[in-house]
Amino acid sequence: MMVARHFRRRLLILSVYTLGFVISSFSVVLASDFTGPVVSVLDGDTLEVLHNTRAERIRLSGIDCPTIRAARNVDDSTRRD
Fold first, then answer.
1. 45-68: string of b/e by CB count within 10 Å (b at 16+)?
2. If 39 and its partner were Cys, which of 21, 48, 56, 60 is the partner (CB 3.0–4.6 Å)?
3. Per-residue CA distances from 61 to 44, 56, 72, 79 (Å)
4. 16-49 confidence digits (pLDDT tens)
């Protein structure tokens, strides 16, 4: 009984890792390449780029920046009058 439980746990962990790898690989394949001028910077990791006369939002992967609202809260709390 104990061996079966241990085997099921290892199988579950392996399945989760495999699923995560497949999902991350699939998202890289779906990424498309295009060029265009930057219309605006929404946050530290989000841009709007003009593509075929339409603004497309681009989120930079692997970049962890605070949102504009969070940055303002930090500035307000550390401000000296």
1. bbbbbeeeeeeeebeeeeeeeeee
2. 48
3. 12, 15, 23, 31
4. 888 877 776 666 556 667 788 999 988 888 889 9
Closest CA to 58 of 77, 72, 37: 37
As given in the structure block, the two tokens for residue 9 are: 């746990």
pLDDT of residue 35: 81
Q: Note the pLDDT of residue 1.
A: 58
Is residue 34 classed as helix, strand or coil in its secondary structure?
coil
What residues have CB less than 8 Å from 37, skipping those under 6 apart?
A: 49, 50
Please enumerate in sequence order all residues whose Cβ is within 8 A of that of 56, keeping only pairs 6 or more positions apart, or say none.
34, 36, 48, 49, 50
